[in-house]
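Title: [Solved] MFS transporter 3D structure

Original question kept below for reference.
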Amino acid sequence: MKTNPPTWLVPVVAIFTLQTISAFLSRLIPIVAPAMSDEFGWSGSSIGYLTASNAVGGLAVLVAGSALLRQIGGMRMLQLTLLLGAACVVFFLYPSLVLVLFACFVMGMSNGAANPAGSEVLQKFSPPGKRNLIFSIKQAGVPLGGMVAGLLIPLVIVLAGWRIALFVCALVVLLPTLLTWRLSPALDGTAGKKGRLFAVPTRESLRMLRVPLAALADNPGLLKMSVVGSLFAASQSCWFAFTVIYLVDRLGFSLSLAGAVFAVMQVGGVIGRVALGWLSDQLGSATATLSIAAILSAASTALLGVTSTQWPLWAIVLLAFVAGCSAAGWNGVQIAEVARRSPPRLIAETAAGAGILVSLVNIAAPTAFALFITATGHYDYAFICAGACSLFVLAFLPRERCGAS
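Solution (posted by the thread starter after getting help):
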């Protein structure tokens, strides 16, 4: 007897695919940047500023994109930002830090669109008993995109140079975006509607700028869970931005080997996000699951700061994997919990509000990290401070009994 696939399968696959290539687009920055910086004579700490600019692009969409998301749909907005980001890789060819910062800003816009779009679509299609798992599968696209970037980009750089690698990356982004293009009207619920991509700002559209953050005040646990995400983001953003340059500059790794370690961290993120989502559904408690992730994130981030050339390769690889499972594995559970606590009519807005807090940290943490390294040269203290932020998660997690989620 033939059975129909579950109704949530197509939405999950589509959002997962776009989430993966959005992450791939952002992760190419810290991987290409060492080779580009060597040729242009930029310092290694400049990667922190490029990563921060990428986060500013995501923040801009989260703050100002609510009206456009309502008008054309979340998936469509995500697809459009991906196309713009792919086009902007051309600016990396010019030895101008201003142009590259602008390109990073535009490439970050898809990150800002990904969570509101994914939350709105998946909350409509996810069965309650599988919500954490489905959201975590979607979020597993982030480290998967990083894993592909960590393996593919260094290989192409070695074989053909970093300029060719940029165009390969643009093609990797374009193809899945175009393949999913026709799905967005059905998943966004905009089929048969005519929407404009651009509209003249009105008093109402300006009022919408404050909606995402205001929406977090709807219930006490919603704001706390959003702060939890921002604290986790401190460690995650520093791992993503500085792992490759740290391994190359301080531990003497080749770019290919550093990229492989980065990819292992992303593998851990894929496994960790799905596993933590499953565990959260089994325990019925997002709080317990995120507590485990916070402790492992703090420990692994602090340990990265004290690694040295005497450490065996397997130990560094294991550390990267554990960090992937924890420092980069929390997102699905946290985002699902924000959606669960949100009023149904404001899911996209609360997802955007929580994302704004995360984006602010994604801007501040790499920038502060880069400034600290420039001033002191101490990666160890910087990573220890980033790890301490994960421990503060334990103070902000809403207290509730198992079965509440």
